[in-house]
Every structure is written in structure tokens, then in C-alpha cells.
Amino acid sequence: MSFTIEIPSIHSELEEQIQYKIDQKAKPIGSLGQMEEIALKIGLIQGSLTPELKKPVMLTVASDHHICEEGVSPCPTEITWQQCLNFLNGGGGIGLFSQEYGFDLRVVDAGVDYDFKPHPKLIDAKVRKGTRNFYKEPAMTHEECLKALENGRKVVADLNESGTNVVGFGEMGIGNTSPASALMSVLTGMDIETCVGPGSGLSKEGVRQKAQILKQAIEKHGISADPFENLARFGGLEIATIAGGMLEAAARRMVIITDGFITTSALLVAYFINPKVVDYAFFSHQSQEQGHQKMVEYLGGKAILDLGFRLGEGTGSAVAYSVIKGSVTMLNKMTSFDEAAVYNTANDDIRIEA
């Protein structure tokens, strides 16, 4: 069984025009560094010299993981549902930062081992109460994995239909660095030891044991040439839901903002389904989880921020949005040399080289 989706190419025919507009701003060429790159990319995504960011939404997608039975996390799994309730009440890092940076926060229950009461900010996309212990059996059936992917697509499609063209992704799920690490290893071919980190606080010995458990799980189930099959064997319901959401966002030419290790593993899955998805994605920050930088590099990306974050939830996505928003504002509103009447009188050239 496989999963496919069509994604349009970005509007590369506008690259010269957008770059020219950036270069004509009243500044040395290239002096705003990565902000110029961000502005160009968003212009190419939207096919516009005056792109707009509309109704940004933060999707913090949550699920539990029965691989925790093997001791891969030092934290109790009950924290997953407790934190989800905290987020719904505006608490936690993501509750605060979503409000501060202008996101409409939605918590997506993809597979939390808890029965939530209805809430206006809660999206019920539960497939089952946590993935299975993939040390013993595949994490999901094909039907469950497909359902999670399609749930993610529907959530993002509904947002886009309501006017949203920016979606940030975060996650909540005790133990979810284990499926993220396993997916990174099987998809990229990197050794599992390269992909595994302390997660929410494992000791060096705990990290070593975690790597051994994941290595044995990979040996048990094997590595498929089909990314969907690998996702079903080793993934998490939140990872699958995010991957589906990212693919749908790219298909709709939306701006995608990833958070840390877990959401980037979802992008990695999406990339193996359709590589064009990365043309629509921004890497918000450099996580302290050791595999994250290698994943970003593998995907040809560049982190916008490096603040020592390792919280997850979408916090990096929210904070980096201030830079993304500023980049678009620069493209649209910063004065040009002509408007500012600034000239290089030595050669009458309105562009000042850096």
C-alpha cells in the first residue's frame, strides 16, 4: 500500500522579478541576509511580488505511544493529555507564544490515550488511543496510518477554505522522539545512534538503551522502499497527521512552518512521499535534539533561529513567525532607493553593493 499526492511547483518564473524588488530596497544588497531569502521564497510560493500572510494557525498535534512501555522516556505518559488541557486553556509555552505572535492555536487529538470533552480549540482527529508498541508489533495498521494522513489533510484543507494560508506545526506526545528517531534512521539510512537523543531527559545510559531498543525494532520489522509502509511500522499518529497536513498545505500553496525534531520527522516522511513539499516549508529553529540538525541538512534547509530550544509544542514555529512576517513586510513596505531618493553619486547607480 502506498500514499501519493500532487503538489504544484513554486512560481520560479518570478524569481528574477522578486529578487530585483528586494535588491532595490534602500540597503546594501544581501544585508538582511536570511530575511531576504525568506521573502523571496514566500513570493515564489504565492506567485506574487506582494505576498500576504493570512490568518495564521498553529496546529499542535498530540498522540500517545506505547513504545514507552520499553522505558524510552523518563516521563509518565499522562503528561500528554494533561498538557493538552493546559494548551486548550492558553497555558504552556505554545499557549503563550501563539497569543504573543498572532496564531490561532488549535490542539489536534490524533491519538491521545484520554477522552477529552468538546472544546472550541480542540480538533478531534483521534484514530486510536496511542500507537502500538513497535518494539513488538507495527505501530499502526495500514488503515490507521492512512486515516491519520487523511485527517491531517482534512484539517489543513478546512483551514485553507476558511482563509488561512500560513500553518505552523507543533506536537505533544510523551515518547515521540522514539518514532521520530526510527523514521529518521530508516528513511535516511543514518545509523540509529546518530538519530537518537535524550528526548525529555534521558541519561547517557538511557539514550544508549533507547538506541538499542529502536535498533532491534527496525531489525524486527525491516525497512521498506515505501515511505508509507515505514510510517505505519515505526511512526506516531501525530507524526502521520502532521505529514498529511504538510502535504495538503503544499498542495494548496500554503506557507508551512516546522518546529523541532518531531515535526521535522513528519516533514521528512512527507518529503519521501513528494519531495516538492520542502519548497513550501520553513525550518523555524535548530533544536537541541542531536538528530534535528542532520534532518534539516538532509532536507536542504536552514534554521531561522537557534535559541537552544528543545520544548516542542510548536514554540519554535511561533517565535520564528515574527521573522517570517517581518521578511514579507520588508518585501512589501520597505522603501526603495528611488522612493527614499538615495543614490550612489559616484556612479549614479541606485543600488549600493554590500
From TrEMBL:
EC numbers: 2.4.2.21
Pathway: Nucleoside biosynthesis; alpha-ribazole biosynthesis; alpha-ribazole from 5,6-dimethylbenzimidazole: step 1/2
Record-linked InterPro entries: Nict_dMeBzImd_PRibTrfase, Nict_dMeBzImd_PRibTrfase_bact, Nict_dMeBzImd_PRibTrfase_N, Nict_dMeBzImd_PRibTrfase_sf
GO MF annotation: an example: nicotinate-nucleotide-dimethylbenzimidazole phosphoribosyltransferase activity
Catalysed reactions, semicolon-separated: 5,6-dimethylbenzimidazole + nicotinate beta-D-ribonucleotide = alpha-ribazole 5'-phosphate + nicotinate + H(+)
Keywords: Cobalamin biosynthesis, Glycosyltransferase, Transferase
Catalytic center residues: 313 (proton acceptor)
CDD domains recorded: DMB-PRT_CobT (cd02439)
PANTHER family referenced in this protein's UniProt entry, alphabetically: NICOTINATE-NUCLEOTIDE--DIMETHYLBENZIMIDAZOLE PHOSPHORIBOSYLTRANSFERASE (PTHR43463)
Role played: Catalyzes the synthesis of alpha-ribazole-5'-phosphate from nicotinate mononucleotide (NAMN) and 5,6-dimethylbenzimidazole (DMB).
Similarity remark: Belongs to the CobT family.
Protein name: Nicotinate-nucleotide--dimethylbenzimidazole phosphoribosyltransferase
Species of the source: Carboxylicivirga linearis
Gene: cobT
